[in-house]
Predict the structure.
Amino acid sequence: MNAVCAAASNAGYHVAVLTWDSATLTAACMCLALPLALASAGQSVTLALNRLPLVARLLLPAWSAIPYLLVSASRGIFQLQWLMIYTLLPTLIAIVLWHAAERDPEQRGTWLDFAVVLILGLVVEFRRFEPAWPRHSGGFNRIILLNAGLYGFLIIRQLGNVGFDLRPRFSDLRNGLRELAFYAPMAIALGLSLGFLHAHAEWPGTGTIVLSFVSIFFLIAILEETYFRGWWQNLLERRLGPNGALIVTALLFGLSHFNKGTTRFNWRYVLLASLAGIFYGRAWRAEHRLLASAITHGCVDTIWMLWLR
């Protein structure tokens, strides 16, 4: 559990052990249902949901309010305004992306697509909705917003090349580890020279290493890679081309770390994260697979947390 908490802390999140009562467990299962379904059977899920009438498809995301209702009511902190936000925002995202699909059937990317991605990112980055939740339960907010984006882009917009398929292929491991091998030596040398990294050679134990990687992979890497590579880089490729999209997305990824671990602009973190973003982006664009870039991302963060922090 310490590894899980440390992994989330590395991403700038403060977590502790949740109280897993029946309401919290039910809410967690509801939050995970859509990403697990899309990760394992995305095409079938998309086809099934698109058989529903249009109005039903556009209103279905309103279910996102149910996890909030369950958790907040069980902890005695329910507020109607947050219920309305979690009802309306995912629904509005679906409606906006339906309009984007109607206007842009060629999927070149419209301002509506970029507006949705930007809003989701700003809400998460500045934790605007986390006061709605009990202490240490902000992860629910991030999953709900991830679900809103997944439903809008994959089910309604049916955006291609996102790569949200977590059924492993050998090429995912090959591409992910290749970019790790390219990035790690230069990042370690640069980080040590800047005083951002601090090497320590202790062996934490196999169990700690495995738990650290798994927790980082699912709590951090999958979420961030979906947002930056699956949405930002994917959409920007259609406007800027592969290399332009790679560079811009890497810079956005780096800047998202500007306040991690400090109250000031952490330029060292931004520099190294921007550099990392180039290699995460290369892993993703090799076959448009999020699993590949998440492997690179998960390995980098695990190495940093255990041996270089």
